[in-house]
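$ run holo --ligand "6-O-phosphono-beta-D-glucopyranose" --emit C-alpha cells
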Amino acid sequence: MRDQNDRTAQRMSITADRLLLFGATGDLAQRMLLPSLCALHSDGLLSPDLRIIGTARSEMTTAEYRDFAREALEKYLPDHRRGGVAEFLNRLSYIAVDATTPEGYDTLAEEVGSYDKGLAIFLSTAPSLFEPTIDGLVHAGLTKGNVRIGLEKPLGTDLASSEEINDAVAKAFSEDRIFRIDHYLGKETVQNLLALRFANLILEPVWNAKYIEHVQITVGETVGLESRVAYYDDSGALRDMVQNHMLQLLALVAMEPPTSFDATAVRDEKVKVLRALRPISKEESVTGQYRAGAVDGTSVPGYDEELGKDSDTETFVALKAHVDNWRWKGVPFYMRTGKRLPERVTEIVVQFRCIPHSIFEGRGATTQPNRLVIGIQPEENVQLSMMAKVPGLDREGIRLRQIPLDIAMPDAFTGSVRRIAYERLLLDLVEGDQTLFVRRDEVEAQWEWIDAIRDLWTQEDITPKPYGAGTWGPSAAIALTERDGVTWHDE
Ligand code: BG6
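-- output --
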C-alpha cells in the first residue's frame, strides 16, 4: 500500500500542466489525439490545471480551433464518450507557427506561458520538420528539465536517418524525457500479452523451443492507400508496419521475464530480443502489391491505379524470422502484414509441439497439438485449443476432437471502458511514465534488421509479386510456410 502511495505521489509530482501539440490540425490529431484527450477529460483523468496548446502552420484563432476540434470530436468520438466536450474545449488554445523559422517559437513560448509542473510536447509532424522544430524549441527555451517530448512515427526511413533524428532530439532532451510512440503498445490487448505471460504460472514453463513449434503474427488490413499516397509509396509495408508494430509484438512474445513492470526492466528485455533477430535470407521473405479485386464484396482498384503510376512499393510482406537465443533456437516466427487483405485482423498464434507419445493411437484416435491464439483486434480474445474426447461408447474406437478454451475479453470484463490506444499513451506522456514507449536502442535495433532486409531486396532484385485485393497476399506467402509443413491461421 505504501508502495502504491509512493507511486501515486511520484506521478502527481511529475504530471505536466501544459501539453503542446505540434501537428494539431493533422489527421492524427482529428482522429485520435483530440478524441483521446476529450475522453480522458470526460472521465476526470486530466488534472484540472492541464492546458492544451495546439500548433500547426494554418492560421487560425483559438475560437476557430475550438470549432475545428468540436467537429473532429463529433466525427470521431463515440456518442457515449462525449460527456464533457464543452468543458474540454475550454482547455484548448491555438497558435500558428511556421516550424522552419526560430521567431515563431518565441510566440509559441509566450502562448505556453509558465508551466510549474511540467510541459509535455507531442510532435506529429513530417520527419523533415523534426530537426528545425527541436532547434526552435531550444531557441525559445522550451526544452528545460521539466519538459518531455513525445515523438510520433515515422522516426526516419532507415537506421541512418533514425540516428540523425535521435541525435537531434538528444541534443535537447535526455533519453528519460523522450517518449517514442508505437501506438500498438497503447492497445489494451497488446499489454495483456504481458499479463498473460507473466501473471500466470502455466504458460511460462512451456514458452520455449522445447514446447513451441512456431509462432505466427498477422496484421491484416482491408484498407488500401487511404489518403496517404505520398507517405505510403515512400514507405511500404515493411517500414510502415513491420519495423515498428510487428517487431514490438514479436519482442513482447519472445522476451525474457523482466524483473518488474517498469520502463527500464521491460525495455531492457525487449531490446535483447530485437538484437537477437537473425538476418533474413532470400528464401525467408515474400513481398506483394495488390491488384484490383474485391474486399468485403466491394470492388476496389489496384495499388498502381490508386497511385496513378507504376510503383515497386510493397503493400504486403511475409517473413520467416528467427530469434537466435537459447529460448527460441529453431522456432520460426512467421510474420505477415498487408493492405487490402480479406480481413482486418491482428493476432498472434503460438503453435505448440505434438505430444511425445499418444496413448490413444492404438485405439484409432489422432491428436493435434495445442494452439494458443491471441486475438488483438478487432476481436479481443484468447483461445487455447485442447484435445477432448468426443462423448460416446467408443465401440468403433476413441474419437478425440480439438475444442477451444475461450476467453472473450469484452465479456470477461463487462463494464470496463475500452479505450483508444492514444488515451493511454497521452496520459502516460503527461504523467511521465515511459514503460509503453520505445527506447532509442530498440528503434535502432529494429531499423538495423529492417535495413538488412531492404538491402537484400535490392541486391537480389526482389520486387513485389501481384496479389488480388481481398486475398491473403501472393501465393509465395503460402509457400513460405507450407514448405515447413505449416499453414497460416486463416479461419
Ligand atoms: C499505422 C500505419 O502505424 O498503423 C498504417 O502507418 C496502419 O498504415 C495503422 O493502417 C494500423 O493501425 P491499427 O491501430 O488500425 O491497427
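-- notes --
The mean pLDDT is 93.
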